[in-house]
Structure formats: structure tokens, C-alpha cells
Amino acid sequence: MARLVSNTPPFTQKTMIEKTEIEAKAKEFELHVANVQRDYVFGWLLFGIFTSSKLKDQIFLKGGNALRKGYFRDTRFSSDLDLGIPNDIEQTVLLDEFNAVCAFVEHHAGISFVTDENKVEEKFAAAEAPIPGLRVYEARIYFRDFYGKADHFKIKVAMDITRFDKVLLPIQSVDLIHPYSDASDVACKIQCMKLEEIIATKLKCLLQREHAPDLFDYVYSIKQLGGELNKTEVITTLVQKTIFGRNPHVLKCILRNTPFDYFKSYWATTVVCAKQFIFGVEEAITFFLSDLEGLFTIYPDNGFEAFAYFGPELRLPIMKAGREQTLLKICYKGADRLVEPYSLKYMQRKDGVEREYLYVYNLSGGDSEPGIRSFVAEKIEAIENTNEKFAPRAQIELSKAGELPENPYLFDPDRPTPAPRPRHRVSKLTRGWGSAASSIKYIYQCSYCGRKFSKSKHDGSLREHKDKGGYRCGGRHGFYVDTKY
């Protein structure tokens, strides 16, 4: 009978499964064999990482595959592995560890990896990070198709490794789930983000993006666990991860008004699950909305500072305009304006007042020249999407809306307030982007000493400088943490 055969002879293969098992699983689940092969390889890679690698005591699994490999045997198939690590790690060190894991797995399972094509790279430039300060490596690992009919046919395994990953709940040690006949050969404990925090993170993602698997993961998890899940821990963790601590009822209203039409369009193509365990998008939406009410029971509407947030009636058109890069029509303080939306940020004034600010480039309307403006929710009288496209003048950061900011201050809290001087001041908000006097600043933090620098362009290179203690710092590169308008 045909078995998984490695094309690299130096290793003695000890454990192999028949390719007919993969085919049978694919047929049973009505999925492409590549999805099943990848899922099988994920199990062995996790076994290698958490038993043979030096990373095993540092790294942890999160995201969709944490659900499938750590908590639920029959949930959806995820296309990648999301991993977190609480500190930093060099690309070369990570690549060496993954190559060693591949060699370990090849020796024990007969899976043939193309290690000379394995890569570890920064997933995105600092300026493009969906969350300020987010630092993620993307690892690409290739293995040869199990059938061996064409040596050139390779399947990619993608891994995202988030450095300096902050978790709120204790990391869990759970049994690796490997629903194949060689499960006993990979029996081990893996480190996973706690289930309640994974679910809270899925809810936060629903707040910021339209991704059908997030809705599926949330609903599937709740359905499977019923009363076993600590929902108080879920909701308190969610609130801690967002800006809505003063009035979580606003967060519930935003989630309740999620634009589900998008999920309906992409459910069948983005949720990869065995036919026996998948459910329809309408069922998922109904369940989600019903469960949402009970989830927020501990947070009744206190009416506190609701004006400080952009509620769903304002937030949804703003987020839509950001995704589609289309202009917004806004009636603000009685004047109609045509604007390009860029950011929703939760900031604190010098008097301690905290609120969300919408940063836009005002093209027309109002009583001043075109340029940067900041709007608050309570002064917006009407808002309307348009079909008119715009070319962004800066990074659109609306996908970060709802995140706790790295730097929440509209002022420099470390700078003493100077004595007032009578002088004429030109408002920054009257200056336009693209000119030498632009008021937009990008904040970069030195990777070595932690000192922050304000820059007029997205550029992480740093000049020679001293650290906060006055000593010379060798750091010459910073990572992006914030944008100041």
C-alpha cells in the first residue's frame, strides 16, 4: 500500500500514515485533500515545536488553530498557525528552530519538507501594522505533496509569530488534538492561549473587521461548551482589550449592529469545515445576536459618557468608507463637509477627559481651508457614505478603531506646562498634508532603549542618540507605535 515517503533518504522514517487515510478524510468531510494534508502536518509541527524545540517553553498557540488543535476536535480547518511569544527573537534563530523542527518531523513521520525554501520575514512594514507596535514574523514552510507524483508540487504552511505578545489570562497546557490514526505518536501537551481569551479576541476582531471565520469560531465555541464556558471572564477580557471600559453597553450596541451582509456573501468560501459540523450563516447570526444579550448582562447601560464614543450609527459608515477608500459626507456643527477618513482614536485631554476622535482630511465645507480635522461624535449631525474614491494621503488606520492606544495622550505628559505667553498661534489643523508644515507625526520607539521619536515620515531609521538615562544607545532602528495628528 502507498505510504508517505520522504524524498530525503538520510532520515529513518518511524511513523507514517497511509495516503488513503487522507483521501478518506477528505471524502468524508467533502474537503480538498490539500486542506487535510495541511491539517495533518500542523499536528506534527506542533508536536515538534512543543517537544523538541528550544521554543517550547516560550511560544504559545492562539487563533483558529488553537481552537482546532487545543480545544475542539471537529471545528473548522484554519489555513495557518498563529503563535505568540512574550519577548523578541531574531529571525535567524527562529528559522533555525523551525528547520530543526522540520528535520525532527521528517525523521519521525516521513513528511518531506523543502527546507531550503523555508523563510521567516517581517509580515508587514511598521507603518502598515494593523495595531501600533504590533511586530509579527511570517514563517513559510513548504512540504511535498503526499502523493509523490510530481516533485515540484509543494504545499505551503504559513505561521504568524507575534513578538512581545501580551495576554491577559494564564496560558494553558492542553493535550494536542490530532484526529488521525497516528495520534498516539504525537501525544503531548501544547501551550495555548486560554479559551476565554481566544473567544474575547474573536469578538474584538468582529468589532474591527468583517471576517466570517471569526463569527464561526465564536458561535461554534459557545455551542460546544454551553454552560462550561466562563462568560464573565470572556466579557471582562474583551472590555479590557478595548476602549469601552467606561460604558461597555456601547460596545454591545456596535457588535449588535455588525454588518452581516458581508458575512453572508463570503461564508461558504471562507469557512472551511467538515460538512457534518458546519452550520449556516443565518443560524450563526441568530445565535450570535441572542447570545450577545446574555454575555453583556454584567454590564447594564449606565449611560456614562456614551457621547465619548462613536456609536454604530456613526461608526459603521466610517469603517465602510475606510475599507472602500471612499469619501464621507458629514454635517458637522451645522456645516456640510466632504472628507477622507483616516483614524478613530481614543485620546485623553490635559483636563483628563477621554473620548474618541475621528481624524479626517477635510476637502470642502466649514470655515477654513482644506486640511486635517478632528471630529467628536456629539457634534456630528449627519453622516453619509459616497461612491467617490480617494487616494490616501497617509495610512488609513481605521482597522485599529476600538484598540487601547499605545499613547493615549493628546499632549506630552512628561513635558511641564509652560507659563502662558501672549502670542499668535497658527492652528495645526489649518495646515494641509503634503506640505513641509504638515502636522502629522509618526512616533517610533527605539528597539534597544525604548526612547520614542517623532518623525514626519514613516521611516524607522534612527540617528545616534542617548537612552533615557543619558547613555549612548546603539539602536539605529525603531518600530512604529503611533500617529499624532
Describe the 3D structure.
The protein is an alpha+beta fold and 485 residues long. The protein folds into four domains: 19-193, no CATH class; 203-304, no CATH class; 307-400, SH3 type barrels; 440-484. Helix content is 29%, strand content 22%. The chain is built from eleven helices and 17 strands. It has a five-stranded mixed sheet with strand order 1-2-5-4-3. It has a five-stranded antiparallel sheet with strand order 11-10-9-8-12, with helices on one face. It is globular and about 75 Å long. The chain starts with 18 loop residues before the first helix and ends with a strand.
Offer a few descriptive terms.
485 residues; alpha+beta; five-stranded mixed sheet; five-stranded antiparallel sheet; 11 helices; disordered N terminus
